[in-house]
Amino acid sequence: MTDRVDLIVVNGRVLTMDEARPRAEAVAIGGGVIRAVGTSAEIRAMAGPATRIVDAGGGSVLPGFIDSHVHLFQGAAALDFLPLDSVRGADALRRAVLDYADARPDEPLILGTGTSYGLIDGRNPTRHDIDAILADRPVALMAPDIHTLWANTKALQVCGLLHGAEMPEGSSVVMGTDGLATGELLETGAMGPVLRLSRTGGRDMLGYVTGADPVPAATAAERAADKALLARGLAHAAARGITTMHNMDGNFYQLELLDELRAEGGLQCRMEVPFHLKNFDPLDRLQEAVEMRRRHDDDWLWSGRVKMFMDGVVESRTALMLRPYPDAPTTGQAVFEPAHFNQACIRADALGLQLSTHAIGDLAVRRTLDGYAAARTANGPRDSRHRIEHIETIHADDLPRIADLGAVASMQPRHAAFGGWFDPPEPGTAFHADQQPLAYPWRAIRDSGARLVFSTDWPVVPVDVLPNVQAAVAPLDLGPGWADQGQSLIEALGSYTRDNAWVAFREDRMGRLRPGMLADVVVLDADLEAVAPAGIGRVRPVTTICGGRITFEAPV
Ligand SMILES: [Zn+2]
Question: How far does the centroid of ligand 1 lie from the alpha carbon of residue 60, in Å?
Fold first, then answer.
């Protein structure tokens, strides 16, 4: 190794996330690693004639952001679908759908994303509502959480769902009193047939929709298009200061495409890709996760984690709760039965795999912890860092169990009722009053001594880290009945850097700026510590550096 310095960042407010030296002004990079951290004068003295100089202009300089829960393929695909995040009411929906449809006469499926629950006068759209807008082309509207899809009659007919269909556990085609589908499709098993009509052939969803893999084999042209789409998604994330993402859906197909991109020098972010174990998969499929880990295990692309779903989401009342919802006679849906889930945890843990389980309702969180406890009892304690995704509510009895089991709470600030992105639920609908103090319980979990990591869950919310930091630091005040779950700026930034490196077992190489660490750096256009909390979300990355290479520069 030479001590050549390729690039220096000077004149910054450097937050290193390294306890040994938390603050500095400048960073020197060479050979893809951090060479030194120091004052601007010290670092300038290391530059040679060929050294590139990035002047941070007094803005914050941080370890490159790590987003620990994304869906890259879907996020990238959604860049070309119809965004409905800010659309409310039938008239606005009509305009948005027709404008998009007119502009894209050949689009095989008009797919709206981020469709608000209760979009039409507080209720969800039926196939008839969508038919009234557009009946002769397939149209489907995806809920923001990607757990519910509303389709028109044409879409249901084309994929044979109009008269209902047999579905895997946890998925359903909602039927009306007329004996036909209402248009509402719950969970990936039911959404999959419609999504396969889309411009991506639904391949963006394959990492979590289907049982067999690869399904269906992509043609050479489709493969090339998918690879280009992934590259576009990676560039989109790099432009947001991101240098590493942990994917939450995964299969060999995505890994192969990313590996080809890496070989071509087109991997703009480091990627972790898990194996998705479905409730109908035989547990022997866990060997595929072992094979994914064997084939892909370096700092650009790696595997070694299993993703599972324990429940659905609060919005469709499919999140699994200890008692019925205030406004619905249901406790939600268990995707896995407890004994089956425990066996899956025991088997995966015995193979040395990390677990990550989507668990939103308080009963889902409890059963997930039960599964992690079963693994620990069967296999003995180890540094497993098993993750629980979302935890939108937790029973007080379960709060200490996260730390006791060495598990990790993986949460998304902008998902919260007080996160400022989604409309908060009306009182007495989604949560009982006594559940609210432990709803989206970031503070309570951190104070319990458990590890807490933050992410976006792109495309559920945009893959912009700083609006999430703002949501964590300055959550909305929804009034009495909700606890203040606010985080300090350093806690929130630490989560998107050092802690997200840790949860992927890479804390020795990523997430801090210190000599020898991988040269992943983001330069921002303002000093985050001097910005009012309500303005953090407007701070923009100006330069992103991944592995010592500039992956994004804001246009001047
Ligand atoms: Zn997700």
Answer: 29
